[in-house]
Amino acid sequence: MAVRVQFEGSSEVGVFAKLTNAYCLVAIGGSANFYSVFEGELSDAIPVVYTSIAGCRIVGRLCVGNRHGLLVPNNTTDQELQHLRNSLPDSVKIQRVEERLSALGNCITCNDYVALAHPDIDRETEEILADTLKVEVFKQTIADHMLVGTYCCFNNQGGLVHPKTKIEEQDELSSLLQVPLVAGTVNRGSDVIGAGLLVNDWSAFCGFNTTSTEMSVIEGVFKLSDHQPFSLGSHLQAPLVDSMVS
């Protein structure tokens, strides 16, 4: 299911956190309430790691990752890198990248199989991305925007893209990613999807300003309702009715 959350009064939760199927990174220095939302939803399944990257709290915009790995910019400190290596699962490969476009989260977006990248990203970075995250890389734009990580968000089941993305472009992206896509918004009409939304295969966190309509679109396209761990399935309904009758 999708949950509303804010970081120190900001609804741009995707700026201050990074969510994958294997781990969640959250910025240091937030409120206890902000952390408790992530801990409550995720801590039974994946580690929630408190960190900074290159001394900054905008961890979601500076790194890119999936269940296979995590790429961080070259100015990430040795201490931060060691902290991440100690905190993340052993199966997650962490790699520092020498890239001119150092806000990797704005320039790259991915799930566990495919990545979309800024058209001007270095060839070497593209190879590291493919090798570390075990993804197929496509250089793309979204609604004429080069910052694909800012204007798109997708998991292994579906994706949300900039509201002005043309139908033909949606179809092309959908065939590359092999998941259905929907054009939409977060945070009451914001087109900055990546900054306002975090998603993996079973949970999503969106900004506090996100409307109920936007949340229902998010839950639908990412197929989150199919993966609720405690949903009242038909196999539970019969015994429940029996116990109520008796």
The largest sheet has its strands arranged as 1-15-14
The helix/strand order is: EHEEHEHEEHEHEEHEEEHEHEEHH
Number of helices: 10
Backbone CA Rg: 18 Å
Averaging pLDDT over every residue, what do you get?
Answer: 89
Cα(first) to Cα(last) distance is 33 Å
Query: What fraction of the residues are assigned to beta strands by DSSP?
Result: 15-25%
Low-confidence runs: 228-246
Q: What would you call the shape?
A: globular
Topology:
Blueprint: E1 2-5, H1 13-16, E2 17-19, E3 24-27, H2 32-42, E4 48-51, H3 59-62, E5 64-65, E6 69-73, H4 78-87, E7 93-97, H5 104-107, E8 108-110, E9 114-117, H6 123-133, E10 136-139, E11 152-154, E12 159-161, H7 167-177, E13 181-183, H8 193-196, E14 197-199, E15 204-207, H9 212-221, H10 234-245
Parallel strand pairs: 1-15, 3-4, 6-7, 9-10, 12-13
Antiparallel strand pairs: 2-3, 5-6, 8-9, 11-12, 14-15
Can you give a write-up of this model?
The protein is an alpha/beta fold and 246 residues long. The protein has ten helices and 15 strands. A three-stranded mixed β-sheet has the order 1-15-14, sandwiched between helices. The longest helix has 12 residues, at 234-245. It starts with a strand and ends with a helix.
Features:
single chain; 246 residues; alpha/beta
